Amino acid sequence: MNKKIIFCLLTTALLSIAPFVEAQQPKKVPRIGYLSGFGSGPTVDEFRQGLPTLGYIEGKNVLVE
What we know:
rod-shaped; two-stranded parallel ribbon; 65 residues; 2 strands
């Protein structure tokens, strides 16, 4: 009988805590947009090559469109 009471108390405690637990929200990745009528030129390629030197990895913590 004591085992049933302890089990019920533990179950009640766990179920009462469950609504307060929230999933982590995904981190928003900043986007950098580039608009040009000439396509991707050397400035865009140089910009993308310079991102890792500043600690940015394209596709992980920054998006270039």
